[in-house]
Design brief:
Elements: H1 2-22, E1 45-48, E2 59-61, E3 73-77, H2 78-81, H3 85-96, E4 101-104, E5 118-126, E6 138-146, E7 149-157, H4 161-174, E8 195-205, E9 214-226, E10 233-239, E11 242-246, H5 247-250, E12 256-265, E13 274-279, E14 288-295, E15 306-313, E16 317-321, E17 329-336, H6 341-344, E18 347-349, E19 352-358, E20 366-377, H7 381-385, E21 392-405
Parallel strand pairs: 1-2, 1-3, 3-4, 7-8
Antiparallel strand pairs: 4-6, 5-21, 6-7, 8-9, 9-10, 9-11, 10-19, 11-18, 12-17, 12-20, 13-19, 14-15, 16-17, 20-21
């Protein structure tokens, strides 16, 4: 009798497993089909293109001959702007007046709006199953004057088009300046002597494109050295802010962050690109790391030193410095304990580097940046029962950008 009860119990358990697997719960977003909803845009959206109105509840076509109501957001399909001088000039005019511009397609239509413009373009990448990341779905761009320079912020997403456009609209809304549409150039610097001036920010997200593994977010900051006293060189600081949100946190998929990869190649495009400084170096047993970069007084004619510093935490994380001065390459691997809380939840790293370029006549001030993540998943309970205690690791999923300063 006892044997029958045991077999009956096992049968019920196995049957329950089949039922659960056949009818998944609402906890997994992979099995829900999102209903398409237009964006209820509170701010007017002007557009150039054919399919943009379907994404918003209210739009108006942009006309180069008419004055557009401010504030507003401009959304364009690049194929409808490219090689059209009047529309290209309209986009440039919008950028210079502080209007957020969202581009679907080739981002070249927002590049070259002004001298020294910060601009980043997604040029390569790889996602799950070895799928190449051929380019971004949507770009967003906004510019405003600050402390004597034009500051630019750029949004890049590889999510599916509907989600990417919504993300770009929300980003544009959060970066819409109170006086957008009426901004003017010619703001005088607020400081004297050498100092770092905020010039740009790269906001990237992989969105749900890498589900169920995780999401990669980037909010890297860029600074230019002002009043450095040198007539031959320009310096730029790159303050990386790279965030991993693992699948366990997002979708309860079990995937955790195992490694984060970052590199900045100063001479990838321009042989005169020079790595002046970088941090951190390899760590061991520390819980916090300090980053201090910049230039010392007298470097290539610079008057006075210009340091920048910050710190970030290393909870069960070890930094491996893989940089190489002979290659003008700053490179790091953050080894994250995937079986600890830091691997199961959101974590951000913040390495940095100082780059130097010739001022004029020696090519563009342009470099390449790489951001990547490796995910890991613990063995299943049936795997452990069969003696398999090893963790399963994904490949590295990554993106690379061409970054320029005009």
């Amino acid at each position: 009798m006892r044997q029958k009860v045991v077999w009956l119990t096992l049968g019920v358990l196995i049957g329950s497993l089949f039922v659960v697997s056949a009818y998944p719960t609402n906890g997994s977003s992979r099995h829900t089909v999102p209903v398409f909803q237009r964006i209820n845009n509170a701010v007017p959206v002007y557009f150039i293109g054919n399919n943009i109105p379907r994404y918003f509840t209210e739009t108006a076509q942009a006309n180069p001959s008419l004055e557009l109501k401010t504030p507003h957001i401009l959304v364009v399909e690049s194929s409808c702007v490219k090689d059209n001088p009047r529309l290209e000039e309209l986009v440039r005019r919008e950028i210079l007046s502080g209007i957020p511009v969202i581009v679907i397609g080739d981002p070249g239509v927002i590049n070259g709006a002004f001298k020294g413009q910060f601009f980043a373009e997604l040029v390569a990448g790889r996602g799950p199953d070895g799928k190449p990341v051929g380019g971004a779905t949507v770009y967003g761009y906004v510019t405003y004057p600050s402390n004597g320079v034009l500051v630019s912020k750029e949004f890049i997403s590889i999510d599916d088009k509907t989600k990417a456009i919504k993300g770009a609209y929300n980003w544009a809304l959060s970066n819409l300046q109170p006086n957008a549409g009426a901004l003017r150039l010619g703001v005088a610097p607020l400081s004297s002597g050498a100092y770092w001036s905020y010039k740009g920010q790269l906001d990237f997200t992989s969105g749900d494109n890498w589900e169920p593994y995780g999401r990669l977010n980037v909010r890297t900051l860029y600074y230019g050295l002002i009043d450095d006293g040198s007539s031959q060189y320009d310096w730029y600081d790159v303050h990386v802010r790279q965030q991993s949100v693992p699948g366990k946190e997002l979708w309860n998929s079990g995937w955790r962050t195992a490694d984060m990869y970052t590199w900045i190649d100063a001479d990838y495009y321009n042989p005169n690109g020079f790595l002046s400084d970088y941090e951190p170096t390899t760590t061991s047993g520390t819980t916090t790391v300090d980053v201090a970069i910049g230039i010392p007084a007298g470097e290539r004619g610079a008057e006075g030193s210009a340091p920048q510093s910050w710190s970030y935490t290393l909870p069960n994380v070890r930094v491996y410095d893989e940089s190489d001065y002979s290659q003008e390459l700053a490179k790091w691997r953050h080894d994250i304990a995937e079986d600890k809380a830091v691997g199961a939840h959101t974590y951000q790293i913040e390495p940095g580097a100082t780059l130097r370029f010739r001022e004029r006549g020696y090519g563009a001030k342009v470099w390449r940046e790489h951001y990547g993540v490796v995910y890991a998943k613990p063995p299943s309970w049936w795997g452990r029962l069969s003696g398999n205690w090893g963790w399963h690791c994904s490949g590295e999923y990554w993106v690379e950008f061409r970054v320029s300063m005009g």
